[in-house]
Amino acid sequence: MKGWRTLAVAITALPFAAQASTAASTPVVTPSGAICHVALPNGISPRGEVASSRWLGNGRLFTQVYEDGIVRILPPDVRPDGSLEMKFPWWGLKVAPKLVITGRRLDGAAPRLSARTNHANPGPGLRRRFWSSALRFPTEGCWRIEARAGSARLVFAAVVRRFDA
């Protein structure tokens, strides 16, 4: 009977563990007319940060995303080559100091996104890190974005769309 109790506890805990590492998604139509299942904020934030409806995290890596999953690029953030740039903040708890961000378009052909990140700024107790980043998307569309710091990883999809103000 002891083994059954252990199994029941493991099965019961599974949904809560899954919620901590995954975000809800919603379908959004991309500029090309494709459907993109974008990540919605899940409210998981690093301890001590101000509450916001834009937090997306998994307990080790965190960022802020738009409530509807659409990254709106305004004219000042359109580069001379036509690429679209947006800044994203990142936080990490008990992670390696180097943040690597990659991304690829899911709804069409495009070069991979490029990312510039600052060096990690250690937070209180050197167990917490903060990075600012500028992500440059070659085109509009549905993008899969992955951030890694050592073994910690946060992956989400977003629609990148140019808006003329």
Largest sheet: 6 strands, antiparallel
**Class from secondary-structure proportions:** mainly beta
Query: N-to-C terminal Cα separation, in Å?
Result: 65 Å
What percent of residues are in strands? 35-45%
Q: Can you count the beta strands?
A: 12
Number of domains: 1
- Described by the principal axes of the CA atoms, the overall outline is globular
| Succession of helices and strands | HEEEEEEEEEEEE
Under CATH, the topology can be stated as Immunoglobulin-like
Q: What proportion of the residues is helical, as a percent range?
A: 10-25%
Q: From the alpha-carbon coordinates, what is the Rg to the nearest angstrom? A: 18 Å
Question: Which stretches of 5+ consecutive residues score pLDDT under 50?
Answer: 1-21
CATH architecture: Sandwich
Write structural notes for this entry:
This protein has one domain: Sandwich (Immunoglobulin-like). It contains 1 helix and 12 strands. Mean pLDDT is 85; it is low at 1-21. The protein is mainly beta and 165 residues long. Strand 3 and strand 4 (61-64) form a beta hairpin. Strands 3, 4, 6, 8, 9 and 10 form a 6-stranded antiparallel sheet that branches. The chain has a 4-stranded mixed sheet with strand order 5-12-11-7, with no helix packed on it. The chain has one helix at 2-21, and strands at residues 25-29, 35-39, 55-57, 61-64, 70-73, 84-93, 100-105, 114-117, 121-122, 128-137, 141-149, 152-162.
